[in-house]
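A sample follows:
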Amino acid sequence: NEMSQGHGDRIALENDLRRAAERGELELVYQPQVSAARRRMLGVEALLRWRHPTLGVIDPPRFLALAEDAGFIHLVSDWVLDEACRQIARWHSANHRGLRMSVNLSPREFERDDIVDRVTAAINAHGLPAGTLEVEITENLLLQDVERVIDKVRTLRGRGVRVAIDDFGTRYSSLNYLRQFPVSSIKIDQSFIRDLGSDVGAAAIVSAFIGIAEGFDLQLVAEGVE
């Protein structure tokens, strides 16, 4: 029946994903982060792609949810961390020393006790200064078992790793967590940027985010300016 067929397809896709890295099917593409004030590139965000041999490019939310539910998201994260650090080390050795690398981590990673050590290990394996890497977390993570998450974020920051809140303003937007979490950046979701110039409300929200960033001495990244 359709239900068992769907379950079988899911299991097959899970098994394919487990082997995707060793088969060379995973790749990172890089989106520039440009300073408006200095008119130059400060870094890049690594975006994961899976090119399945028969299904083509699979939407990241779909296959990442699959890895989370099946309990092997840490294997995908380790591949991403290693590949991102390898690439930024290449760029540094090619004289682009100031560039930073931004990597998204699943909220599930912060349920694991080893996440800080794994991030640090990837940085050290490629001989990078810790501040080269920025880890992106989502707002809803900040409301899950907050004390445990805060400890991990503080430890990452203590080791020099930068931490950004992704899609700021789209979920909970509790300003209280900005007092608790030693984050270095907030990223304005592209839905607000897209409506600038046509929506007075969007402009007011973006102005408020700018004020928040300045007040907390955070770097502000706007998504979707491309």
User: Anything to note?
Assistant: The radius of gyration is 18 Å. Residues 143 and 177 are 9 Å apart (CA to CA). DSSP finds eight helices and eight strands in the chain. Helices lie at 2-20, 60-70, 73-93, 115-125, 146-158, 176-180, 190-194, 200-215.
